[in-house]
Amino acid sequence: MWSKLRALIFYFGYSIFTILQGSLGLIVALCLPPKLRNDYIALWCRTVLWWLKVTCGVSHTIEGTVPKGAFVVAGNHQSPWETILLQFLMSPVSTVLKKELLRIPFFGWAMAMMNPIAINREDGRGAAKQVLKEGKEHIESGFSVLIFPEGTRQPANSLGRFNRGAANLAVASKTPILPFAHNGGEFWPSESLAKTPGNIHFIVGEPIEPGDLTARELNQKLEEWIQQATDKIAAAEQ
């Protein structure tokens, strides 16, 4: 009961922050260039994670460092939490997402400010071509590109099937993949209102160079790294 009450308090503040900063963001979007708009939304993300810690007792620890430069950023997808963290941790970053998300009032408007790659998932081949084309353009502009290889969120302590979107872009653009792994789904599960107090463990790996690897080989290397990192996080909790 108490955990659900804390979650309701969190979502109340979350909604207020989103409405206020999303509304102001419409003005900001007209006045600032893409990278500064990214910084503006990153402020909202920091505010949300601070509020999550205050209301629900969910904090996080980051292992590893984010190097300078533009990367193809890829990792496991468990919770809304990692999407929020990555917007400021990897800034400036363009996220590959479903175009329907941009229609959500305030939240969608804020996401639209961050120069995303909004795809139609039902158009598999067309979406893949769009990610390659726009992904290259964003990387050339100095933006990293965030892709979740699993496509949809998975339960905590499990990995879904990896598609080759991140690997395809890395090979085509000759850009390293910056991998990450975490256990955010244990504390902010996507299917539950309640939040579990605790500390999320987030690991940033060393960049994986595409070199002469094929997209299939690079994707396998990425998946192996994420599996090892998630196993490491699970072992540390025992």
Q: What is the number of E strands?
A: 7
Give the N-to-C terminal Cα separation: 27 Å
Rg calculated over all Cα atoms: 17 Å
Structure classification = alpha/beta
Tell me about the largest β-sheet. 7 strands, mixed
Strand content range: 15-25%
Number of helices: 7
Unreliable parts: none
| Oligomer status | single chain
Helix fraction by DSSP (H/I, runs of at least 4) = 40-55%
- Report the average pLDDT across residues: 89
**Strand order, sheet with most strands:** 1-7-6-2-5-3-4
Overall outline: globular
Order of helices and strands: HHEEHEHEHEHEEH
Task: Describe the overall structure.
It is built from 7 helices and 7 strands, in the order ααββαβαβαβαββα. By secondary structure, the protein is of the alpha/beta class. The chain has a 7-stranded mixed sheet with strand order 1-7-6-2-5-3-4, with helices on both faces. α5 (124-140) packs across α6 (165-173). The chain is globular, with a radius of gyration of 17 Å.
